[in-house]
Structure formats: structure tokens, C-alpha cells
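[Automated response] Your request has been received and processed.

Submitted sequence:
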Amino acid sequence: MGPGALTQILSALRLPAHPALLVGPAASDDAVVYRLDEHTALVQTVDFFPPIVDDPYTYGAIAAANALSDVYAMGGRPILALAIAGFPETLEPEVMSAILQGGADKVAEAGAVVGGGHTVVDQEPKYGLCVTGLIDPARVTTRSGAQPGDILLLTKPIGTGLVTTALKRRAVDPAHLEAAVTSMLRLNRHAAELARHVEVHAATDITGFGLLGHAAEIARQSGVGLRIAAGRVPLLPGALTYAEARIAPGGLTRNMEFVARDGYTQYTAGVSEAYRLLLNDPQTSGGLLFALPPSAAADLQRLCADAGQGCWPVGEVFAGNRIEVQE
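Generated structure:
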């Protein structure tokens, strides 16, 4: 579902508040946070989607990594997952098992466990997880704390939507697909753990709404403006080529329209159409986007460099109410 439609649906809901619900539906954040006691809170999220790659085990693992990412974005540690799946009755049992196994193995890599799940019959396969994590209530990272002067850091290259669309159209270079799959399979666990050592004002993970869509969530919920340097955003191999050929997923157009509404996103003349597509490309299991003070950003870049973890400065926060995209 596109960001515009989702916003409209959620705005019509009237859900009761609860003092233990520290981050709930009204916050529209990556996950909900429920306080158990002074030192412990639960972080919970759910995510699932149809296959984006041909191999069932890899699909399950990517879907699991994507679902786990919301807990990492909040600063939490996943401990338990429940599988959610819809499978056609005609799908071979070994294919279904491979999908579930791929997800379970990725959850185990995260240091958590799959405790069960639920399946339904569906014409198109769908798989994902409901994930529960733990967090210190005093150390929850939301989208709403970005401050003018903060630096924006991104921990994975973008372009998965473009590359997987090229796969669907049988136009993908195998090397490009391999790089995209490797990125999608990589947990955001390491980046999140490193970020705990520095002062982070706001964070989110980059998934279906694209880099600009999720950056806009930080901007709007923090009451600030963001300046993105398009040329500094890391790209997956082949992503720019597919963008220039306009081999783009359907959700990309919705993303672009949503962030452009009422002139909210402004591009300088030097930002090409291909880069505009890239910045709005729906991501699967994308990286984390952090807003940090300059000194903390420098420290996190150093920590990431020492650990072999990607970390790229892609913009800055300013006092305003829009997104500016520069070359």
C-alpha cells in the first residue's frame, strides 16, 4: 500500500491510549513500544510481502531480515518471531518448507527464535514475521527527534526495487541481482549495535516508501527540513542503469507523488530524472537512516569503518518544513 493511502486509512482510526504504550499508532513509527517496567519494554512489529526473488529459501530469509529491521530501527533487540504466511494449495510442500526455513534461519542469525506462526490459503505466496524485541524504555529511538544541524547517515545502498523489477522483466544482470540479494540478506543488527555507542536523535529503516518517503517521515515527525545530496547516496550495482531505462516498480510512482505533494520535496535542476526515481525506489530490507549531531556522526562513521559496516553521509537537517534534494 502506498504512503498516501496508508496515511488516509490510519487518520480515520480512533484507538484507545494506554500509559504503558510508549510508541503507538498515533506516532506512526517503525514499531510499537510497550513498557513492562522501569527498565524493560517490548518492541513489536509485523511485515510480510510476496516473493521478490525466485529461490524460496532466499525469499524467506529476505522477508525475515526486512521484518526484523523495524526492531533495529527503534534501537531494540529481537527475541521472538511468529511466522505469517499465505500459500496456494497447489504450491509444492518443499517450496513452502524452504520459505519457512529461510526465515527461521535468518531469525536465528539475529539471535532470536521463531516460536510458531499462522498460515492461510492465498493465490499468491506471501510470507513475513511478527517480531517482538526488548529495549530499555529510556533508549528508544524514534523518528521524531531530529534536530537542525544533524547529519544524516545511511547504512546500505539503495536500488533493490529497480534491480528486482529488472529480474521480473528478465532484464537483470546476474551480478547486479547477486549484489542486491546480498544487501537484502544483510541484517541491520550490526549497524544498530554500533549506533548504540553514540548519540542518535532519530532513526528509521528504508523500506517500501523509498529513501525520500522514509526521510520525510523523520522530517515531518521531527518538525524539521532535510537536505539530501543525491550524488552522495550509495547505489547498488546496476540500479542507475535500470533507472535510466525506466525499469521501475509500480510503487515508485506512488512514492514520488506522495513526497512531491504540495511542493514538499524540491529538486534542484541538476538532479536527473533517473536519480529522482532512485531516491523514491521502494526498498526491501534496506538500511537504517540516522539523524545525529555532527560529532556523533563522525564517531559512528569511524566505528562502522573499523567494523567493515557501510555508513554514508547523505544529507543534513535544517530548520524548515520541506525536503531539498541537491546534486
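Summary generated for your ticket: The two ends are 30 Å apart (CA to CA). The mean pLDDT is 95.
If you did not submit this request, please reply to this message.
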